[in-house]
Specification:
- It is globular and about 50 Å long.
- The longest helix is centred in the middle third of the chain and has 14 residues.
- By secondary structure, it is α/β, with parallel strands linked by helices.
- Strands 2-1-3-4-11-10-9-6-7 form a nine-stranded mixed beta sheet, with helices on both faces. A two-stranded antiparallel sheet has the order 5-8.
- The chain has a single domain, classed as Rossmann fold, CATH 3.40.50.880.
- Helices cover 27% and strands 27% of the residues.
């Protein structure tokens, strides 16, 4: 089987010494996650943070939208083009995965609602409990602990979307539409070292007791790799249309 052509829309470019200079960027973290799997990928990174989005959906078999410390509720140089890209993917039923910011952007673009969480920051390892299943969600797991770091949250799903999973501090932690859209509020691509560094870099902005709870949660194991396998299964569905 030929390699999967995956377009990664990067919505973050960390320029900090502590994080940006110490770790690969968002696109590389996802590439590392996917490269640990048996399936092989060809990658094309679109610097959406600077306004770049795919012009032709057939450039790639599938797409994904990364996380970002930016708020999807703010207006960015790429906001309008990203929203239109998401709607084009949906209309064409092009496989699309969104994580964190990507999860929220997909919800907003398709008519859902995103708001600042009343519970404040949700940081650390949190378990998403999956209530529904899609054919690409193999291996089958009902409880999936993953890294979280967000303050905004999806509070209403777009028409035609189905809630897949919820976590203690995030009611809409994962959703799907048809067989072509899959999202998670979590960061399946984070590593323990990266999460610890980001938390240390930002903890002064996180009030207690969320700060202590975040550090305590890191004693658990995260399994974002399983969500990565689900994403790959989703992406494969786009290969027949290439």
């Amino acid at each position: 089987m030929r390699r999967i052509n995956l377009g990664i829309l990067q919505t973050n470019h960390d320029k900090s010494v502590e994080v940006g200079d110490a770790f690969p960027d968002d696109a590389h973290r996802f590439r590392d996650m996917f490269d640990a799997q048996d399936d092989r990928f060809n990658y094309r990174v679109y610097m959406t943070i600077g306004g770049e989005v795919p012009q032709d959906l057939d450039e790639q078999d599938a797409y994904m939208i990364t996380g970002s410390p930016l708020s999807v509720l703010d207006e960015h140089v790429f906001s309008e083009d990203l929203m239109e890209f998401i709607r084009r993917c949906d209309a064409a039923q092009k496989p699309l995965m969104g994580a964190c910011f990507g999860h929220q952007a997909i919800a907003l673009a398709l008519g859902g609602k995103v708001e600042r969480s009343l519970q404040g920051y949700n940081v650390g390892i949190e378990e998403t409990v999956f209530h529904a299943k899609r054919v690409y969600m193999t291996p089958e797991v009902h409880r999936l602990p993953m890294y979280m770091f967000h303050e905004d949250a999806v509070t209403a799903l777009p028409d035609g979307c189905e809630l897949l999973g919820s976590s203690p501090k995030c009611t809409i932690a994962s959703f799907a539409k048809g067989g072509h859209i899959l999202t998670t509020q979590a960061h399946p691509e984070f590593s323990p070292a990266f999460m610890e560094t980001v938390l240390r870099f930002t903890e002064s902005h996180i009030p207690e007791p969320a700060r202590s709870a975040a550090w305590d949660s890191l004693n658990k194991d995260a399994h974002g790799d399983i969500f990565g396998l689900w994403s790959t299964n989703l992406f494969k569905s786009g290969m027949s249309h290439a």
